[in-house]
Amino acid sequence: MSITENEARKVAHLARIRVEDEALPALAQELSSILQFMEQLNEVDVEGVEPMTGVTPMRLKRRDDVVTTGEMADKVLSNAPDAREGFFAVPKVVE
Amino acid sequence: MSDLNKLGIEGARDALKQGGVTSVELTDACLQAIEDAGALNAFVHGTPDMARDMAKAADQRIKSGDATAMTGIPLGIKDLFCVRGVPTQAASGILRGFRPEYESTVTHNLWDAGAVMLGKLNMDEFAMGSSNESSTYGPAVNPWQGRDGAKLTAGGSSGGSASAVAADLCLAATGTDTGGSIRQPAALTGIVGLKPTYGRVSRWGVIAYASSLDQAGPMTKSVRDAAIMLGAMASVDEKDSTSANIPVPDFEAAITGDIRGQKIGIPREYRMEGMPADIDALWRQGAEMLRDAGAEIVDISLPHTKYALPAYYVIAPAEASSNLARYDGVRYGHRAKLGQGDGIVDMYEKTRAEGFGPEVQRRVMIGTYVLSAGFYDAYYNRARKVRALIKRDFDQAFADGVDAILAPATPSAAFPLGSAKDGDPVAMYLNDVFTVTLNLAGLPGIAVPVGQDADGLPLGLQMIGRPFEEGALLNQASVLERAAGFVAKPDRWW
């Protein structure tokens, strides 16, 4: 299966990665060659096989739904590129 | 004693116990070796002050009689592990300046045992790569040189760990393995690398690549060292919901050197077309060594082997695209400079385009594609079904009575840096052909240095064990190690 420039633009946007228009043809070609490599999977008979999620056959662990930690806003914010008054600061979200 | 940095964990432990050497002396020897080895680009963030403080504390602890096997042992830590207050950026530009406020469970366990932190080690960006060339720090270099002094890859993604251990900059190092990232670099540098069973070692605080495949493990100078270090790294951890509730045994005690009567499987599907004669010969020699030690060598079949790579390159990018969604320029790391009128989506897109390197961008986009509406079943679900079949192949082999499997670790010896630069990404993916199968099945595997190629470069073999039987695997590997008697070291040029 090959990916068109338009599809490459769409997937880049879904991934939230800016790709300039002039880079789209090369990207489309690269993604196509990787997908082509994956096409081999179509040779396998997977009739009746359950898709595997994890390697250990165990029920996901549960814990009580209670607060176990917190009260460390300064630590949470210490690596933020822009933090003000105890919040993460971002550009305008709502028009 | 001179050249203390050349010791392994076992040797250093015994010397520390006898009092002939101190952790401060060991640590200083390593710090000097690191300072002299800038050309290897293995250590990317040094922590000498922390190292000396930890070494002093370790010497106190040894004096007080409260030491563990890892007390006072200077280690290098892959840049993927969060260490409190120490730069941790998964070799990515997007995490430049990030200093975690918390400690990964693995490093917490190691410091608890008294190990000493020398610094952070180079790797492929977000552990995506097989040559360490996707690192924002530039590639780690293999201490083994090619013909005419060619600079070779130390492998990837744990290339800095492999280079540092092979060049004696530390006694051992941590690595992580998602598709071969411990075993491939270990094999290319002539050291031992162990990927434990999925769930044996906590993933908490280890920056995620593909969560259903990632597993941390030791990279060491001997099989026994790997056993000692795994014992300190592993734990049952409430903070990792996939940490297996299975007690950590004494792995070192399992090394008896006796494998008489055990069945070692040779998977016929691993005999690939175009495999170099050196690798093929090494594999045969390895089987002979195990036979001479009293094991029975049996031919086995793992029929879905061929499909492991394409399945891996669907599943791993799918998980990566989800895991790496968190790097958005809001909570940590890099944020792009925004133009007038740029909104939040511009911020995300510019930040990620600037912060992620080409291979990471590629995998995030492939992952996004295979998870997108209309393609989820055709790619992602199909790959997960093939994964189930790959695991079933191994289950069948073990059910038939095989104790371990012997296979090559890599399709070639270390290759020159830059040789794959302009090639297609798929060619680089082929490096993982012998290693990804285990990650898909969750099994433990170990790379052991066994021989050298015509150019004198190290070659390794891989042994694959039953789930949660790392002790038995280490014992089998120790027999291979002893029979191979690999003692070669790289000539120092750096």
UniProtKB/TrEMBL annotation, chain A:
Keywords assigned: ATP-binding, Ligase, Nucleotide-binding, Protein biosynthesis
Repeat recorded as keyword: no
Pfam families in alphabetical order: GatC
InterPro entries: Asp/Glu-ADT_sf_sub_c, GatC
Catalytic activity field: L-aspartyl-tRNA(Asn) + L-glutamine + ATP + H2O = L-asparaginyl-tRNA(Asn) + L-glutamate + ADP + phosphate + 2 H(+); L-glutamyl-tRNA(Gln) + L-glutamine + ATP + H2O = L-glutaminyl-tRNA(Gln) + L-glutamate + ADP + phosphate + H(+)
Its EC number(s): 6.3.5.-
Domain of life: Bacteria
Subunit structure: Heterotrimer of A, B and C subunits.
Its biological purpose: Allows the formation of correctly charged Asn-tRNA(Asn) or Gln-tRNA(Gln) through the transamidation of misacylated Asp-tRNA(Asn) or Glu-tRNA(Gln) in organisms which lack either or both of asparaginyl-tRNA or glutaminyl-tRNA synthetases. The reaction takes place in the presence of glutamine and ATP through an activated phospho-Asp-tRNA(Asn) or phospho-Glu-tRNA(Gln).
Similarity-based family: Belongs to the GatC family.
Protein name: Aspartyl/glutamyl-tRNA(Asn/Gln) amidotransferase subunit C
Organism name: Paracoccus albicereus
TrEMBL record, chain B:
Pfam families in the record: Amidase
Domain of life: Bacteria
SUPFAM superfamilies: Amidase signature (AS) enzymes
The Amidase domain, residue ranges: 25-474
Residue numbers annotated as active site: K78 (charge relay system), S157 (charge relay system), S181 (acyl-ester intermediate)
Keyword terms, alphabetized: ATP-binding, Ligase, Nucleotide-binding, Protein biosynthesis
Catalytic activities: L-glutamyl-tRNA(Gln) + L-glutamine + ATP + H2O = L-glutaminyl-tRNA(Gln) + L-glutamate + ADP + phosphate + H(+)
Enzyme Commission code: 6.3.5.7
Keyword Protein biosynthesis attached: yes
Family statement: Belongs to the amidase family. GatA subfamily.
Subunit structure: Heterotrimer of A, B and C subunits.
Record's function text: Allows the formation of correctly charged Gln-tRNA(Gln) through the transamidation of misacylated Glu-tRNA(Gln) in organisms which lack glutaminyl-tRNA synthetase. The reaction takes place in the presence of glutamine and ATP through an activated gamma-phospho-Glu-tRNA(Gln).
Protein name: Glutamyl-tRNA(Gln) amidotransferase subunit A
Species assigned in the record: Paracoccus albicereus
